[in-house]
Amino acid sequence: MSPLPLFRFLLVLSIAAFATAAQAEPGYLVEDVPAQASGANTVEARDTALLKGQRDALQSLFERLAPGDRSRLPTVSDQLVFQTMQGFEVKDERTTGTTYAAKLTVEFRRAAIDSILGGQGVASVVEPQKPALLLPLLIRSDGSAMLWSEENGWQTAWANRPPGGDSQRLVVPLGDLQDIQQLPADMVVNGDLQAMNGMARSYECDGIYVATARQTTLDRGQPGILVEIARPGNPPLFRGDFAADPSGDYGVAFETAATAAGTAIQQAFREQNAVPAGPPQHLEATARFSDLRTWRKLRQTLEDTAAIQRLVVKRLAVGSADLALDYRGDPATLIRMLASRGLILAQGAGGWEVSAGGGGPARAAPGPAAPAYPQPPGYDQGAPGGDPGYYDGPQGYGAPPGDDGPAGYGGGPDAAPYPYRDPPPVVPPDRDDPGYYGYGVGRPGWN
Description:
flat; Thiol Ester Dehydrase, Chain A; Rossmann fold; 11 helices; 447 residues; single chain; disordered C terminus
């Protein structure tokens, strides 16, 4: 019995891979890859086309992940495809007696691709496992907002935008009845993050971009649109104006704007998620923050930074945390990457410090250094407005003479619980229940 052709072996492999997809880690997807060839018959043409399409998909993926370092990319071969491919799908097949054409979606194993690029010393972009949701909000010239409608040409332009070599995959909602009921346009206008996150979960997305196009009259008196792209609660990453047809047809303006804005999204994503080449480096730093919310956001931002491979919190205290970072690249690159995410990494008198941009390191409070949690029994139980100390007094966290006043550290009904121990400790009744160790608005408390 003759051996199976390589294509048929790979087809069996891909079927097995998709059968166990629920158990496998999501891989790197390359979509809509053309596959076409001719041969002595249809079967030969198909085998040739699919093998070439798979090689083209892998080459496209390498170039997508390493857009600035292509000279060091590995040479693509059928053997390399076999080592890295998790599976593929075929659509839009067309055949004649001697030709075959189709489009492929090929999935490659994430760990295998990352290992190959890392072994080649190639600087690459870390792509997310899930796409981001894009909400195409149109503000018409009369001020009304439109999101889900056949008349929303802005939505159509994004839906028809070819993904090309997107590192950050984007999903544009269908705009069906369920979408209309779940997320009306006014919720996006008002920045209802809970509602937008709900739709992102419905589409199995991680992250949201709001693409706002505002119909207006441009400075030159021509009708057009002003476009802004932003993540909810963040400054715009793209702004631009695009002229419409003098007759009032906005179709070309929408298409041109969606292409330009999509390119800007990809560029910003690659800048923030590039992993430099080279072996891991180690850095120890002190994080400075003013409240619990800032600490949570700071830590999440560090963990989401692609160059940081490992983050360890060695010590957590009031207003500061001692961190150990393993990262790729050099300190200058890490400083730049964190700055693009709103963090400042700088060397102070006592070593490296990281803080949220704009505010700088938290102001040191008077009195003794802040202790690490958990607190020893009876620690710092001064009366409200008591002697100057790190936790006593009427002024609130970070301000002399102390930390406990109407907005003091230690909690109150509005404080967010933050368990420094797992499981959380029992909340004593004299500790501003229920915000034990939380930051929030509370009555003069125990600290």
